[in-house]
Each structure stands twice: as C-alpha cells, then as structure tokens.
Specification:
66 residues, mainly alpha, 2 helices
C-alpha cells in the first residue's frame, strides 16, 4: 500500500502548476500598468476592483521576462 502524499509534495505540485500557468492576467501584471497605477494603453486609472480581476481586459500585455 502506498503511503499518504506528504504536504511538501502537494505544496510543490501547487507551486509547479502556478509557475507553468504564469502570473494572473490582471492590471498588476500587465506591461501597460505603470508604477502610478495608470493604464498607459487607455491613459486612465482603472477602478480598484477591475484592476484586481483576472482576464478583465482584452488589451492585457504580459511583461517580457528578459
């Protein structure tokens, strides 16, 4: 009989899944969202709830990783 999966293995699997999926697609990870909280694609500050909502914007541009 196989033993119960240890917590550290479950934790590793969760982290690996997150790593492969990439960051959430919201304003805070978008290349257009500047340090002042302004969207440079639309030249305005998005509402707080919208900025925290994943997949809310069709103009999302992931940051280049290099």
């Amino acid at each position: 009989m196989r033993h119960k999966i240890p917590h550290i293995v479950k934790f590793y699997d969760e982290i690996a899944k997150i790593y492969h999926e990439g960051p959430p697609r919201c304003c805070h990870t978008c290349a257009f969202y500047d340090v002042k909280g302004v969207c440079t694609a639309f030249f305005m500050e998005p509402p707080e709830e919208f900025a925290a909502t994943a997949d809310a914007c069709d103009e999302y541009e992931g940051e280049i990783p290099f």
